[in-house]
Write a structure and sequence with these properties.
By secondary structure, this protein is mainly beta. 3% of the residues lie in helices and 48% in strands. Strands 1-2-5-6-7-8-9-10-11-12-13-14-15-16 form a 14-stranded antiparallel β-barrel. A hairpin with a 6-residue loop joins strand 1 and strand 2. It is globular. The two termini are 35 Å apart.
């Protein structure tokens, strides 16, 4: 990895890279699918910080902040309930590289706006969600510790101020990008399965295919690949009269692909430059505020699938009258072979999160339910 990153700076032409990745994708991040904006109802604040591969001298730090809301559009309509769910998000990514004794930092900041997101109750247990996002991406090169040749003058005099044209080294103009997605949600209908919820969704990102080039070259080869995400979730609630130790179990799945052309979206298992598949399960412990889980990540590149990461998850959720607060932590353990990224050559990866849900006075206690909110089920868990 270190040689790869150094090569990118020695030959700064183009780069095919993955977007910032978060292991706890099941927390309904708008970053994964714009249809998640306002998915839980009320006002949602999400903050996640990820420190990746801290065993390397290069730094891979990523953070994300999201804010979304739920505004009822037709509360008096008894059949079809619809809500408007605007949202906003910010991601920052710092890539640090140690090159010839100098620290080189690339900073990537992305502002994500979701002005057109909706949730609609189609029937008694069916919901349709969808949204469109507009992204503004900014790159910058922080080179405070770099030394350029023009800083040395005659007789070995060193000038700390340089006029080297470093802005031509990386193209740091603002890039405009877009995304869209949809989600179908089904709740349990009968007394025996009213605690169940099934969700199926898909999203397409980088629809404008903007350029991402360290040299500033604007051409077809420097365009960011399309990112297609297909995800599913099944929340199974065991009936309360059985008094289970684990009242709710959640199974999650996500397949993320990077594509060159739009029509490759319809080829779900082929034509991917790189891809990854994540799946696993979480369980909520009875009479506690604790959720435990375990996820797996399967990587795919060069026509080869390989088990890459095991991810244990710990979460704690506390409910108040009009407020829910969730704390989460996950630990990525790379288990790939010796010729790939693993804990022996990358070190550990930590991801910590904070979620705050604010609700109106009309929904309080455990049964915070909105007729335009696909995420909640009566007396069910939030996560």
């Amino acid at each position: 990895m270190k040689k790869l990153l150094i090569s990118l700076f020695c030959f700064p032409y183009i780069i095919y890279s993955q977007d910032p990745s978060f292991s706890q994708f099941d927390l309904n991040m708008i970053y994964s699918n714009p249809g998640f904006s306002g998915y839980e109802g009320g006002i949602k604040n999400l903050l996640h910080i990820r420190n990746q591969w801290n065993g390397l001298k290069e730094n891979f730090n990523t953070s994300i902040f999201e804010l979304s809301s739920n505004i009822k559009l037709n509360p008096n309509n008894r059949k079809t309930k619809t809500s408007w769910n605007p949202g906003i998000g910010v991601t920052t990514e710092d890539l640090g590289i140690l090159l010839a004794g100098n620290s080189v930092f690339i900073k990537k900041t992305e502002l994500m706006l979701y002005p057109m997101t909706f949730h609609m109750k189609l029937a008694e247990v069916w919901y349709l969600s969808g949204g469109v996002g507009v992204n503004f991406r900014q790159y910058s090169l922080e080179s405070s510790s770099l030394i350029f040749s023009d800083q040395w003058g005659e007789y070995g005099v060193f000038n700390p101020i340089t006029n080297a044209p470093i802005n031509t080294f990386i193209h740091n103009g603002t890039k405009i990008d877009g995304s869209f997605g949809f989600i179908i949600t089904k709740h349990g209908k009968y007394q025996s399965n009213r605690g169940n919820r099934f969700m199926l969704g898909s999203s397409l990102n980088h629809v404008t295919k903007p350029s991402e080039s360290f040299s500033g070259n604007e051409n077809q080869e420097s365009m960011i690949p399309l990112k297609h995400i297909f995800h599913a979730e099944w929340l199974y609630g065991i009936p309360a009269y059985k008094r289970p130790f684990i009242p709710y179990v959640k199974a999650v799945f996500k397949h993320e692909r990077y594509l060159g052309e739009y029509f490759d979206v319809f080829k779900p298992w082929g034509e991917s430059r790189i891809s990854k598949t994540e799946f696993g399960t979480t369980a909520i412990l009875s009479n506690t505020n604790i959720e435990l889980g375990l996820l797996y990540r399967l990587g795919h590149n060069y026509n080869n699938y390989h088990m890459q990461t095991i991810i244990p998850i710990f979460r704690f959720l506390k409910s108040f009258e009009k407020l829910k607060i969730g704390l989460s932590y996950s630990y990525d353990m790379n288990i790939a072979g010796s010729n790939r990224l693993n804990m022996g050559n990358t070190g550990s990866t930590h991801e910590m999160g904070l979620i705050v849900y604010l609700f109106s006075s009309k929904g309080q206690g455990r049964s915070i339910v909105s007729t335009e909110c696909p995420a909640f089920i009566i007396d069910g868990p939030l996560f």
